[in-house]
Amino acid sequence: MDKLIIRGGRRLSGKVPVSGAKNAALPLMAASLLADAPLRLRNLPRLVDIATMADLLNHHGTAVTLEGATGNGTGFGRVMRLETPAIVDTTAPYDIVRRMRASILVLGPLLARAGTARVSLPGGCAIGTRPIDLHLKGLAALGAEIALEEGYVLARAPRGGLRGARVVLDKVSVGATENLLMAASLARGETVIENAAREPEIVDLGRCLVAMGARIEGLGTSRIEIAGVTRLGAADHRTMADRIEAGSYAIAAAITGGRVTLLGAEAAAMEAQIEILRAAGVKIATVPEGLEVSGGDGIRPVTCTTQPYPGFPTDMQAQLMALMCLADGASVITEAIFENRFMHVLELARMGADITVAGASATVRGVARLAGAPVMATDLRASMGLALAGLAADGVTEVHRLYHLDRGYERLEEKLLRLGADVARVAA
Ligand code: EPZ
Predict the structure, then answer these.
(1) What average pLDDT does this structure show over 369-397?
(2) Residues lining ligand 1, CB < 6 A?
(3) Do 265 and 246 contact (CB within 8 A), yes or no?
(4) What is the whole-number distance in angstroms between the Cα of residue 371 and the centre of ligand 1?
(5) Extended strands (E) in 95-144
């Protein structure tokens, strides 16, 4: 198991390409199950989770071929061609699903295209219980019969396929919205999803589905209308830039007092992040290549609550907390999406941070300096928070269980080295 060795204290500077978004790429890949024609996805990040989704789709009958680098001159990202002439197996096995919860995103497409699906229930997760009740309730509203058996969801569409319906989500859920959007695209009649999630990754998925022939209105709003069609076709789609990766590198610039250009970052998808970072004293400018971020004039404390889009993303909470560890005063960060997403707090405390947690809120009292230490990654974003703290800390930080980072950050150490960081991946 690899670890990341970080010698802190260097100001980062230079340009770094932002990769395609993991959380857009995964549902986009699952959408390829909906059609018997090829889907070409460009700007896909090279990540463990992308490989896992490719394994799963291959198992269902999708031919997955890589066409090499995206050709955007950055050397990052790739082009993938996905084609499912027929669904040969409607079971998503535990062995694959346990590696990645997002595997649940094949449920809607399998049900819509093959009329039946048997998908392993995603197991526990470090950041929260993460049930899938909203996915199941929504698909049941489209006429599916749903049962749970031996750790699997068994779903069967009615004769003639799923039928359109009005679905009101009890809670805003990205995954449930994506599963329903894909399923409803091939359902008979009109579906309306109320209280839908508005994340840019859902808009990206919706745009791709429309390019495949789906009829969808209201993407990016909390009310999405889908008029089902009988068949979807081929499409060629460029995956949006990763707003969470971009935000993470923005904080890398700010926490080291550096100046970094995020090539390809999409400011329109990062408004809440930009607003909070500016409130913290970080300078952010939109430039033709993307975003330019610089720190260096001190870090101001902020008060922030994570929310569904367009609010501040929960996937940036740990990274923001790392920055607030060095703020000039006390910050309050409230995690309102997941009930157990403060696993990084005790690890940051090992580096000298001063944080107290009460319920869903953490009070972070800024300290003058952090000290390098061996720390343990517990989940994807927590580990990025620890790496960011390590970039600013005195001495050496060792981030153990690097595999967490590999799930969501493309060639992290290579990008950090480009920006002048002193980092190395070593076998633990
Ligand atoms: C997506 O997860 C992202 N993952 C997560 O990113 C992200 O944190 C999350 O959205 C919120 O923005 C992918 O896109 C692959 P939700 P998802 O359904 O779809 C509850 C990362 O770091 N809920 O919007 O699983 C749930 O427990 C990952 O890249 C139900 O109660 O999130 C949570 O409290 C981590 N029942 C809330 O809703 C359901 O059926 C939001 O979850 C579904 C969700």
Answers:
(1) 97
(2) 23, 26, 102, 128, 130-135, 171, 173-176, 197, 313-315, 337-338, 380-381, 408
(3) yes
(4) 33
(5) 116-120
Output phi, psi for 382, to 5 deg.
-60, -40
CA–CA distance, 191 with 272 (Å, rounded to integer): 30
Predicted local confidence at residue 123, as pLDDT: 78
In what order do the strands lie in the sheet containing 13-17?
A: 13-17, 259-263, 290-294, 283-287
Q: Which two tokens stand for residue 59?
A: 């198992």
Q: What is the pLDDT of residues 119-129, one digit of tens each?
A: 999 977 889 88
* CA 392 remoteness from chain centre: 25
- Tell which atom from ligand 1 comes closest to the C-alpha of 49: 15
Q: What is the pLDDT of residues 149-181, one digit of tens each?
A: 999 999 999 999 999 999 999 999 999 999 999
Ligand 1, closest atom to CA 137?
40
Helix (H, G, I), strand (E, B) or coil at 389: helix
Q: How far is the CA of 246 from the centre of ligand 1 (A)?
A: 20
- β-bridge pairing 63-69 and 78-83: antiparallel
pLDDT, tens only, 95-151? 999 999 999 999 999 999 999 999 999 977 889 889 999 999 999 999 999 999 999
> 287: alpha, beta or left, given left = phi > 0 and alpha = psi -120 to 50?
beta
125 classed as catalytic: yes
